[in-house]
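Justification of computing resources. Each target in the renewal requires a structure prediction run like the one illustrated here; the chain below, 253 residues long, is used simply to show the kind of job we budget for.
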Amino acid sequence: MLKTAIKAARDAGQVLTRYYTSKLTIKTKSTDRDLVTEADIEAERVILSVIAASFPDHAIVAEESGSTGHSAYTWLVDPLDGTNNFAHGHPVFCVALALLHLDKVVLSVIFDPLRDELFTAEKGQGAFLNGESIRVSDCQDLTASIIATGFPYDRATNPQNNLAEFNRMMPLVQGVRRCGSAALDMAYVACGRIDGYWEHHLNPWDYLGGALMVTEAGGTVSNMQGEACTLETRSVVAGTPRIYTQILDIIRQ
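Resulting structure tokens:
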């Protein structure tokens, strides 16, 4: 299953790389900030084809084409996490895949095709970057941390737009990064490039695979209430054990 996920992610990454320097047809979905391109569609089609060739009976939950099938195994598919970046030529985006067994994430692959960085994780087997074991940072205090976050597409009208949390957090840390890809944010927590991350209004394909990656790398992940993340969860806090706790405390304030 991991080999299939890696092949699907790499094949989709080739699609994204090919489109990245091309003129794109860009459409909107839920808001004028929620974009989709032909690269999203073709990359997802490639992923679904690879999965179907090896596991035709598995269920799929894909960002662009929705849900199909019923099985103990379900694939979460985000063919292009960071579409806004991609559409503007900003080189921060990835392919994100996760496999659930009975609603528990057991496998995760996040692939950054421009940097050829392949993050993988299996339940109980650790987390890896290009085959090398990764761990969260040893940062213990927010004042020494770099953390990441994101903002919802409807931030102009949604009162839960993360601005209050952002304003509270910013003076307490060395820096806040806004990557534009929830999956890469989670992968960067797992490998220690950033120390913590929080965001509201996510979909499960955005971050559930990354949640496994962070926990397998020694970090802590939950929703904003400190509860385990599930398919229904739409918010996430992640980080080193100490940084996670401090971020969660501030959000609760």
